[in-house]
Amino acid sequence: MKKHGMNCLAVTILMAAALMGVSSLTAMADSTVTTDHAAAVTAESEAEPVTPTPTEYAHITECGIENGNRIVIRGEMKGTWSDPAFYDNYLYLFELQPYQDNLDGRTDYCGWITKGDALSFTLPLNLGTQDDRLYSKFVVAVYDGEKYTQVSNTAYVTNPESVAKHREEYKTAQTKKGLLIENTDSMVSDAFELGVNHVIVNIPFHHILGNGIQYVYDGKTYSFNKELMEQYDRTIRKMSEKNMTVTAVILNGWNDNTPQLIYPGVTKQPANQVFYYGFNAATKEGYETIKAIASFLADRYSSLASPYGKVSNWIIGNEINNQQWNYMGSMGLDQYLKEYERAFRVFYTAIKSTNQNDRLFFSTDYNWNHDANGTTKYNAKDVITKFAEQSGAGGPMDWGLAYHPYSIPMTEPEFWDDDQTGLITYDVNSPVVNLKNLSVLTDYMQNAGLRRADGQVRHIILSEQGFTSKSATRGENDDLQAAAIAYAYYIADSNPYIDAFIMSRQVDAPAETKDSLLFGLWHCDESKPNDIVPTMRKKSWSIYKNIDNRNRTLETTEFAKQILGIQKWSDVIPNFRWRSQE
User: Does the pLDDT of residue 317 top 90, yes or no?
Assistant: First the structure.
């Protein structure tokens, strides 16, 4: 600490000067200044030099499981070796848990090599033990005699599917036709009659936690709502038995009993402003809980032979470019996606290490370059691009995109005239990308930086879109809804990069009908605002039933041509699938 005033030597001099006289005081004071200056110069010359920043960089290019029981990490060195006067002659490998971000205070490296040797480490996987490394991430560091400094990218295990106990092939659906169905026996039967091949099931964490089912994971016991899980079991099993591809949307609602699932510092928000919350893997408790629940669900819905059924696709969160559906608090896009990716990787590892060929997705809305504020709302294009960039640095994942291309506005069904809003263009700078300009999305996803590790275009599903049967300006119009569904399905069906077209929804929801959002294929009983009770099928039901029937599809959609003002579907849909039959 710097001392203000005279030092002890000066005080002694002044005491002597009081006896010697003023002239002697002056001489002694001058001597003190000279002595202090000399001491300062000596101290400065003896001070420890500042440790320079390391100059080498270890690029980890591989981090994977080999032979089922070991992790092999390989890479290459860049830059020049750090000054040996400050750093020793070794590179050290550290293991971190997903919630850890730095090496502060760490000395427990798990491997080391001499500088100049090949950048390669081999570690036991320890699968299923308390030292399991399946979820770990790894960094390389150098040592300056006091602390370790990271000099590499962070690398995760990239092939958790190699240890999966369930290895059945992914079930490719016969057609792209899908639907968000109501979880009741009668509506499941209705979905069978419609002939849908893809179904969406929403699984909110805050609902399935409860009592009745005990699940022990990593020595801890987790409890699930037996009654609710059995409802999911019945629905998923029935759909699996009918060879439907089941997609589960994993959501994180507020639950006072599981605060560890909420990102640190986030408080409960008004229900009409925030619907769901981002998953928290930034703390030990959050990470462990996510891992346990994801493992429970993956194992329960793991196989067509399972008594509970089979989930093949998993969407983690909803429309993550808008925090209204994935709230984590105000933050820039880089930090937001860092935290989202942290949780996504936990789900990815838990699910892929259980079910080898399951697919994982994140979803965005249609605001491609529109309605972003940079702190709670982000452009869908930026989210996709940045997620690919950030996740790629930690090791490739085979993630897919679940996109929501609604019409503009959603209260009007005709998406084919959406370019009149000024929000639709046919290039990558379009404010909005929906069914009108869907090729902008699929063209963009073909860019090299967005492709999978094997060079293939990532899986894309249209997991949520609907068209209202009640115009906000013109009232009831079942014909417009039916025409919109026909046109939209044909566009998706004729695009080779779209795997599924999943309609929202089977039955109108009373909470939405008041806002002219009647997306269902069935009308609902609007006198029961808290329940979804189907009353009558709409024209769109029969259109959707036959839309993928080779022998009936063109006949069924003939009525829509007059509404759209076209002679042939192939005039407005590139590579129209049924062109040869027109």
Answer: yes
